[in-house]
Automatic annotation (TrEMBL), chain A:
Highest taxon of the lineage: Bacteria
Transmembrane segments: 26-45, 632-652
Region Disordered: start-end pairs: 249-294
Compositionally biased intervals (Polar residues): 264-286
GO molecular function: ATP binding; ATP hydrolysis activity; dipeptidyl-peptidase activity
InterPro entries cross-referenced by the UniProt entry: AAA+_ATPase (IPR003593), AB_hydrolase_fold (IPR029058), ABC_transporter-like_ATP-bd (IPR003439), ABC_transporter-like_CS (IPR017871), Galactose-bd-like_sf (IPR008979), P-loop_NTPase (IPR027417), Xaa-Pro-like_dom (IPR000383), Xaa-Pro_dipept_C (IPR013736)
Protein name per UniProt: Alpha/beta fold hydrolase
TrEMBL record, chain B:
This protein's UniProt keywords: Membrane, Transmembrane, Transmembrane helix
Protein name per UniProt: ABC transporter permease
Organism: Lentzea tibetensis
TM stretches of this protein: 59-78, 98-121, 152-178, 198-220, 227-245, 279-298
GO molecular function, one term: ABC-type transporter activity
Claim: Ion transport is one of the keywords in the record: no
GO CC, any one term: plasma membrane
Keyword Endoplasmic reticulum included in the entry's annotation: no
One Pfam entry name: ABC2_membrane_2
Lineage summary: Bacteria, Bacillati, Actinomycetota, Actinomycetes, Pseudonocardiales
């Protein structure tokens, strides 16, 4: 018997553990659907902007080799076509060292925006033949004019007049200069966007930021551009070698960061793009190995470079050549709308170059918009947003479509570093570039500088030298511009430092500051001139120095032979830098810089302040209210709305769930056609119907696995019936139905918080129902449990029986109208079982109803007034205990000769269904008194051992239990 | 009769039956006793009392109080230069009291804080199921949605309390050891003490919101299993997995969809010019993940058959 029981239990445990998995069948598909949706959204957002292929036409166009030459040079071009033609054209020259393929991405973007785009390799680059003349007005600019002629013959290109295509020009660096030069000489150009380019190549490569006179300073970043500059040898070398080998080392490697940019897109896009370009260049490039020391340069260009690189100074002839290659020559003839884009991280072509161009065009009457972005030759080429802005500019000025980009001044402000490693960026817009013709001058703030005269020494050979930037590597370093801007090293003894007071409030430095310095030979020194490098540091309160843009202003100051000092105004490099409060500005004057040709003769100078102020340009503007991640804000709003909506829908659905049958209001329990089947075919309860009337003690009898516990769980609203329903006092039972508050239950083991005492458990349980403590009758219930002083011990320490008693006491809290107990006597000893029976009987007698489940017949017979017998989920019998036990008039006789006895009984009138079971004979008496049958048996000579009603219940029950 | 005996006094039986005979509950329209109101069941006070008395809760809170002391002690034992003004979070920890708080949040942000939230939310339903007390609460009856909500709110309160307790203790420890000086960020910016306190307070708010996804997932697992360890461990496992994937740079911007991707975005609050974009995205991501898991949890719990 014991073995049978334990097997039963094992079976039940299995069954229970399998259920959650079966029931979770809707959750898994839901999760899969949600994952699929999410993946779909990700896929959509990532592929939604998949580019449409742009049709292209390659052509080789012959242009004259030179002004007086009859020979021709072949220019390799690609025409990118938009979806609709005719359309305005955009000429897209490339940067130094590149080819038509380096601008492929931008060309395709512009073509998609509706322009016919002509990209070409300039002479001496890519597959084009000819020699590099450095954007000479006689060579490259004439080539470009020929290309305009060619475009004017194309049907795809919209025309203003015969021979005059509607055309804009945009290009970066070398290409940007070409745009300016072309627009200066050819009136057919309708608009232009030069990017990170120079105004005067001689000043870009041989800068001198010192002037004897006070600078004008009307514009934010005006530089004196004095003669006799200091050779910027690192950049010049890189520039020249790019022309020799066609290696694109002079162009920025990656894209500059942009406001609101997600994470590391810029970093990610660079490597994916670069190898592809390199491959294309590899195919098209002439053999990279230079054939002689001049490579593909024109002899005069080569000679000029050789001269400067070896002597550090430029002759008048060289300066003339450089100037002839510079927009400064023709920019005062540009009258077309121009957007000048210059980089804040650019030690090659600084902000002063664009400033000079802007002044020239503005004076000529051209419309100028100036954009300073967080990139440059050291910081990356224009990113997606800026390229879009360029395209919008071209679109407005070539087709009139879109909003007027205006003539404002935009600059990017790099702020603190974010967690993702990129600096935060914002864009500030001022109504116009200050200081241009007709506009207000740039606002300047004078900060007091202090510092005593200091002696600085130039080492022989100009070595070791201070470090400010690493040209060419700059773009790699600028990714972590925290490094590059702090890379600068000043060598002791070589640098004089002048410091301002700490700032009271944040100041947004925008452009080139200027200071007045006094330079003299140190006593007993006789240098004719001094080469010095002036830098402006932002020094935090902690002493951390940042060199904005990594830029230095080189100066060459002539020193009189009499030893008198020279006062010069120095224009510091243009930069944008938010100088925080508590920070100071420090002007550092150094004798050496690695990026430049330092003076080789040993010397010592006395450097002091000629005026104790530094004039800092400030351009007030408004922050562009960008940066707010719109998608994320929508996401926040929508998810909050969905959560709220789900809450409201659930509330309404609950309100509608109430179901009442008033005719059953006095009937404690009615179960109708109750079925519970689990997916997978297991049916725990099948078509069960019974009712419990007021005052009954009903026993739910059945072996383990009969479905008793499942039924009780459904009664408590823990399990959802598959079919049928349960009504308690007329109210349909659903999970959490209020009528459940009238049921006290103990089903399948106790459930207490093990860390609390028995008394605390009961108190907290009652507190959880939210009903007043006075209704609980806690003391009476605890007395019924009778745990003595153990009630104050933790439940963890209780025995099985003690927990059982406490659980029954918990069920009785509040004196419920219907008390439901599942196997209440399990684990109790016989005296306790006896007491429990008494409790249940008397509780029912006091006007309540009790439902007890048990697998023991004796238990039910002794406790209950009524019984419902279940087996395998079905109802077997129901009724009063005595009635069911009596088995409806069948009798059992224990005899010594069963076969004979069966024959005798069968002969009695009215007796039917006689059958023999071992020494017992069962018969249906049909009203025939048992005494009649007895006397018949005795008369037949049969010894009758026992005669009584057939205990059908027990038989059936034992059979069921035993048969399992 | 011995006090230690487990025994029902016959008098008790009489008391009970007398009480039962005399009491007749008034019944409301919905079939419940008049004193029963669904919206009064399992008040927060009651649920908090149930949870706070648990050794688990007390240990976790105790550990959070202890952790800053352990960190301070390790800085005392180890070699450290209290005047450092540059370097990472760890190098700067001893610069000021606020820097110490920042370090504490930094070192606990990736594992400890998600685990605590996972513990409070993952354990809440599953432990009731494992004690079998869940069925009695539901039969009391506490409507399922209300049980889930009250338990989630109580877990949320405990989580937020824990998340605030750690920096609060760290602040006290930090100020005692390293003074109420300026907070120095890894970029060298310095902000006054007051701003630092505000920044840390905002950081705690952000972390609390950002960990909503952990709460949602833990709740979902808590209603899906009867094993508290499974719910808590499963959630922590997902968090670790997400952090591992976040290290794989080859995934590029797919990593933005990982729930832990913006976990450290609160560090942006330390700069003088606060960039809110990362934190906004972090809030959005947390709300979407947390919302989906919470709704799944609610749907699953309401439809579930309670068999524990």
């Amino acid at each position: 018997m014991l073995t049978a029981r334990s097997q039963q239990t094992a079976h039940k445990v299995n069954e229970v553990s399998r259920l959650p998995r079966l029931r979770g069948r809707w959750s898994l598909p839901a999760v899969i659907v949600i994952l699929a949706l999410a993946a779909g959204i990700v896929f959509f957002t990532r592929t939604g902007d998949d580019p449409v292929p742009v049709p292209t036409r390659d052509a080789v166009i012959d242009v004259p080799e030179g002004p007086d030459s009859t020979q021709t040079v072949q220019i390799d071009t690609t025409l990118y076509l938009p979806q609709r033609t005719p359309a305005p054209a955009v000429l897209l020259p490339h940067g130094f060292g590149g080819s038509k393929n380096s601008v492929k991405t931008q060309a395709e973007e512009l073509a998609r925006d509706g322009f016919v785009v002509l990209a070409y390799s300039a002479r001496g680059f890519g597959r084009s033949t000819g020699q590099i003349a450095l954007n000479s007005l006689d060579y490259e600019v004439r080539d470009a004019q020929k290309l305009l002629d060619w475009l004017a013959t194309r049907d795809e290109v919209q025309k203003d007049a015969p021979g005059d295509p509607r055309i804009g020009v945009t290009g970066a660096s070398y290409g940007g200069a070409l745009a300016l030069l072309l627009a200066g000489v050819d009136q057919r150009v309708d608009t232009l966007v030069p990017v990170i380019t120079y105004n005067d190549l001689s000043q870009a490569l041989l800068p001198n930021s010192a002037a004897l006179a006070q600078p004008q300073g009307a514009t934010p970043s005006a530089n004196a551009f004095s003669d006799n500059g200091v050779f910027k040898r690192s950049w010049a070398g890189i520039f020249f070698s790019a022309g020799m080998t066609n290696a694109d080392t002079a162009s920025p490697a990656g894209e500059a960061p942009e406001p609101g940019q997600i994470d590391d897109n810029a970093q990610v896009s660079t490597p994916t793009q670069a190898p592809q370009e390199a491959g294309q260049q590899g195919q098209n490039r002439q053999p990279a190995r230079p054939t002689d020391a001049c490579g593909r340069f024109r002899p005069e260009v080569c000679a000029a470079y050789t001269e400067v690189a070896t002597t550090g100074k430029a002759s008048a002839q060289t300066l003339e050549l450089l100037r002839k290659s510079s927009p400064v020559e023709v920019a005062d003839k540009i009258t077309k709308p121009t957007m000048l884009v210059q980089g804040e991280q650019d030690t090659l072509f600084g902000l002063d170059q664009a400033d000079a161009t802007a002044r020239q065009i503005s004076e000529a009457g051209g419309q100028v918009k100036v954009v300073w972005y967080a990139g440059g030759h050291d910081g990356g080429s224009p990113g997606t947003q800026l390229r879009k802005q360029i395209s919008d500019w071209l679109s407005f000025h070539l087709t009139g479509k879109g909003t007027d980009p205006g003539t404002g001044f935009e600059y990017a402000v790099q702020g603190a570093f974010r967690t993702n490693g990129t600096p935060s960026l914002r864009t500030v817009i001022a109504p116009s570039y200050p200081g241009l013709s007709g506009g207000a001058q740039t606002e300047r703030r004078d900060l007091k500088l202090s510092g005593r005269p200091q002696l600085v020494v130039n080492p022989a050979g100009g070595n070791p030298a201070a470090v400010s930037s690493l040209p060419g590597l700059g773009s790699a370093l600028s990714r972590s511009s925290s490094i590059s801007s702090r890379l600068s090293v000043d060598l002791p003894g070589q640098a004089a430092v002048f410091t301002s007071d700490a700032l009271d409030s944040q100041m947004l430095l925008t452009g080139a500051s200027s200071v007045r310095l006094r330079v003299a030979n140190a006593p007993n020194q006789q240098s004719p001139e001094a080469v010095l490098f002036v830098k402006l540091y932002d020094v935090s309160a902690e002493g951390v120095r940042t060199l904005p843009g990594s830029a230095v202003a080189p100066i060459r100051v002539a020193l009189p032979a009499d030893g008198n000092p020279t006062d010069v105004s120095v224009t510091l490099p243009g930069a944008v830098r938010p100088v925080e409060s508590e920070h100071r500005l420090a002007v550092v004057v150094s004798t050496t810089d690695q990026a430049f040709q330092n003076a080789t003769a040993p010397a010592a100078y006395q450097v002091s302040l000629a005026a104790d102020t530094i004039s800092v340009p400030v351009v007030p503007g408004t922050n562009v209210t960008e940066g707010a991640p719109v998608g994320a804000l929508w996401g926040i709003g929508i998810s909050l709305a969905v959560l709220a909506l789900a809450g409201v829908i659930a509330m309404f659905r609950r309100r509608l769930a109430h179901d009442e049958d008033p005719s059953l209001a006095s009937v404690p329990l009615v179960i109708s056609s109750l079925t519970k089947s689990y997916p997978g075919g297991l049916t725990a309860v099948k078509d069960l119907s019974f009712r419990v009337e007021h005052g009954q003690v009903l026993g739910l009898l059945g072996p383990n696995g009969a479905g008793k516990t499942t039924t009780l769980r459904m009664l408590m609203g823990l399990i959802h019936p598959t079919e049928g329903h349960i009504r308690v006092f007329g109210h349909k039972v659903v999970p959490g139905a209020p009528v459940l508050a009238r049921i006290g239950s103990f089903v399948e083991g106790s459930g207490f918080l093990p860390h609390l005492s028995g008394a605390a458990n009961l108190k907290l349980y009652w507190a959880a129902t939210g009903r007043p403590l006075s209704e609980a009758h806690l003391d009476e219930a605890l007395e019924i449990a009778g745990l003595g002083d153990a009630v104050h011990r933790r439940v963890r320490t209780y025995s099985q029986g003690m927990r059982q008693r406490l659980a029954i006491a918990q069920a009785m809290l509040g004196l419920p109208d219907l008390l439901v107990l599942d196997e209440p006597t399990n684990g109790l000893d016989p005296p306790q079982i006896h007491q429990m029976r008494e409790v249940l009987r008397r509780y029912a007698a006091a006007g309540r109803t009790v439902l007890v489940s048990s697998h023991l017949l004796a238990e039910v017979e002794q406790t209950c007034s009524h019984v419902v017998v279940m087996h395998k989920g079905k109802l077997v019998a129901a009724g009063e205990v005595g009635e069911v036990a009596a088995g409806g008039g069948e009798a059992t006789f224990k005899v010594d000769q069963p076969t004979l006895a069966a024959k005798v009984l069968g002969d009695i009138e009215g007796v039917r269904d006689v059958h023999v079971e071992e020494d017992a004979v069962h018969a249906s008496m049909n009203g025939v008194p048992r005494a009649t049958a007895l006397s018949a048996l005795v008369a037949a000579g049969i010894a009758v051992d026992q005669a009584g009603p057939r205990r059908r219940l027990e038989d059936a029950f034992l059979e069921l239990v035993g048969g399992e | 009769m011995n006090e230690h005996d487990v025994h029902t006094d016959p008098g008790a039986l009489k008391d009970l039956t007398d009480a039962a005979a005399q009491t007749h509950l008034e019944v409301a329209e919905d079939g419940s006793p008049k004193s029963y109101r669904a919206n009064r069941t399992l008040k927060l006070r009651v649920e908090l009392a149930r949870q706070i008395r648990r050794r688990r809760t007390q240990l976790v809170l105790g550990f959070l109080v202890l952790l800053p002391f352990l960190l301070a002690l390790s800085f005392e034992i180890g070699q450290s230069n209290p005047n450092r003004r540059s370097g990472g979070f760890v190098d700067l920890a001893t610069a000021s009291g606020i820097n110490f708080v920042v370090l504490t949040l930094f070192v606990s942000g990736s594992f400890l804080l998600p685990m605590i939230v996972a513990l409070f939310f993952g354990d809440t339903i599953a432990s009731e199921a494992s004690w079998s007390s869940l069925k009695y609460l539901l039969a009391a009856p506490i409507p399922r949605h209300r049980l889930l909500r009250q338990k989630a709110v109580a877990s949320g309160l405990l989580s937020v309390f824990a998340l605030a307790l750690l920096p609060a203790v760290a602040l006290a420890v930090g100020v005692t050891w390293y003074g109420a000086g300026e907070v120095v960020s890894p970029t060298g910016e310095a902000a006054p003490f007051g701003d630092g306190v505000l920044g840390v307070a905002l950081a705690v708010c952000y972390i609390s919101i950002n960990l909503f996804w952990v709460a949602g997932l833990a709740l979902y697992l808590s209603v899906s299993t009867d094993a508290p360890l499974g719910a808590v461990g499963g959630t922590v496992l997902v968090s670790i997995l997400s952090q591992i994937l976040d290290q794989i740079t080859a995934l590029e911007d797919l990593r933005n969809y990982l729930p832990t991707h913006y976990a450290m975005a609160w560090a942006d609050l330390l700069s003088t010019e606060i960039d809110w974009s990362e934190m906004t995205k972090g809030v959005c991501s947390a709300l979407i993940y947390g919302g989906v898991f919470t709704l799944l949890a609610a749907q699953k719990f309401v439809r579930k058959d309670i068999t524990s």
